[in-house]
Design goal:
about 120 residues; mainly beta; four-stranded antiparallel sheet; 3 helices; binds zinc ion
């Protein structure tokens, strides 16, 4: 059996500290903690991390395309994909989120999934 190189994880599998309420789940509050499913490295994300996301990716074009193939289009005003490499195991990781404006200057960020490569070469 061939091992899939990029796996999809739901937010509750890899994040702690997300908010849930009536009509929403996996919402970013002030901060949340991401646990790399490969090595358990922890990364703290703040609401500002998503707010300041500029759309840039550190992935090569070929890798970005592989991740794009697995990234769905969400029903959201805006959609983001946070690309980074795990600092400990090097796994390429993409966090898919939606951004919806709430009021004049406030945004709500709801996480959809994390795509995690098998290793640094994925
Ligand atoms: Zn890792």
């Amino acid at each position: 059996m061939q091992k899939r190189l990029i796996e999809q994880f739901s937010p509750d599998q890899v994040f702690h500290g997300l908010l849930a309420g009536e009509g929403f789940s996996s919402r970013v509050g002030a901060a949340c903690i991401y646990h790399c499913p490969r090595c358990r490295h922890r990364i703290r994300f703040r609401w500002q991390s998503f707010y300041q996301w500029d759309g840039a990716s550190c992935f090569t074009r070929a890798r970005r395309r592989r991740f794009d193939d697995m990234t769905p289009a969400l029903a959201a005003e805006e959609q983001g994909a946070f690309d980074f490499f795990c600092p400990t195991c090097g796994a390429p990781t993409r966090i898919i989120f939606s951004a919806n404006r709430q009021g004049i200057a406030a945004y709500q960020f709801d996480l959809y999934a994390a795509l995690v490569g098998a290793g640094a070469l994925t």
